Amino acid sequence: MAQADLANFFKAASADPVLLERFKASESAEKMAEVAGQAGYAVTSDDLQALAAEFDAAAETQELSDEALAGVSGGFFLSAIAKRFGLESIGQAGDDLVGAIIGVVAPKYKAAYDEANKSF
Predict the structure, then answer these.
(1) What is the Cα–Cα distance from 29 to 27, expressed in whole angstroms?
(2) What residue spans define the domains of the chain?
(3) Which residues, in sequence order, are CB contacts of 46 under 8 Å at separation 6+?
(4) DSSP code at position 28
């Protein structure tokens, strides 16, 4: 996984509303990677899938019930990505970016993520 490219892409997409909207409109990890590539970042669909796998592994080690996991998965995934890529804060645009990624590569967490973010 090209950690630097993913981190740089997250920063760029969080700061560029047009890039963010193109990324959010993607309906597959391949399309997401294509958008990142067109912006000059070497991000692959495998990189995005690996994020979902990392989240799955981290969620399993937390030993949370499904209900508890549903309650924290939105914030957990966002903070895990921020921590993973050394981002102090990725703000609302970053939150939108993470939501788009979850919707495509980790759809089983999407409803919980959206529910957790309603209160913010």
Answers:
(1) 7
(2) 3-118
(3) 1
(4) S
- Give residue 43's Cα distance to chain centre: 13
Tens of pLDDT, residue by residue over 4-52, are 888 888 888 888 889 989 988 998 889 999 999 999 999 998 988 887 7
The first and second tokens of residue 94, run together, are: 């970053």
Six-digit token string for 85? 């890529």
Structure tokens at 95: 């939150």
- How many C-beta neighbours within 10 Å does residue 67 have? 8
Residue 100 in contact with residue 36, Cβ under 8 Å?
Answer: no
C-alpha 70/C-alpha 87 separation (Å) is 24
Q: Tell me the H-state helices in the chain.
A: 3-15, 17-24, 29-38, 45-61, 66-84, 91-105, 110-118
- How far is residue 90's CA from residue 34's CA, in Å, rounded to a whole number? 22
Q: At residue 101, what is the residue type?
A: I
